[in-house]
Automatic annotation (TrEMBL):
Parts of the chain that traverse the membrane: none
Pfam families per record: HHH_3
Lineage: Bacteria, Candidatus Shapironibacteriota
Record-level Gene Ontology MF annotations: DNA binding
SMART domains linked to this entry: HhH1
A Gene Ontology biological process term: protein secretion by the type II secretion system
Name by which UniProt lists this protein: Helix-hairpin-helix DNA-binding motif class 1 domain-containing protein
Entry-linked SUPFAM superfamilies: RuvA domain 2-like
Matches recorded under InterPro entries: Competence_ComEA_HhH, Endo/Exo/Phosphatase_dom_1, Hlx-hairpin-Hlx_DNA-bd_motif, RuvA_2-like
Any single GO CC term annotated in Swiss-Prot or TrEMBL for this entry: type II protein secretion system complex
Length: 93
């Protein structure tokens, strides 16, 4: 069986299994959004993040480098404790 978590996949391949059989077993499990690699569209899909805020997150990364922790997203103008509490279970680094 193949199980996908975010962008990670694991597979135990049995003898005689074909790619067609393997593809039929793929289960999609929504993962967290990596705030260091997410594009504008992925960031907009997060709760409470609109286009302007998503662009601020990207701009912050360009100026300051990658986020060192999930909490560091609070350094982006407009993301305070309340927004962070909404996001923390849906983001990763």
């Amino acid at each position: 069986m193949i199980v996908g978590i975010g962008s990670k996949l694991e597979k135990s391949v049995g003898q005689g299994e074909t790619i067609k059989e393997i593809k039929a077993e793929v289960t999609i499990i929504p993962g967290k959004i990596n705030i260091n690699t997410a594009n504008l569209r992925q960031l907009i899909d997060l709760p409470g993040i609109g286009e302007k805020m998503a662009q601020r997150i990207i701009d912050y990364r360009l100026v300051n480098g990658l986020f060192k922790s999930k909490e560091a997203i609070k350094g982006v103008k407009g993301i305070g404790e309340k927004t962070y509490e909404t996001l923390k279970g849906k983001i990763d680094i």
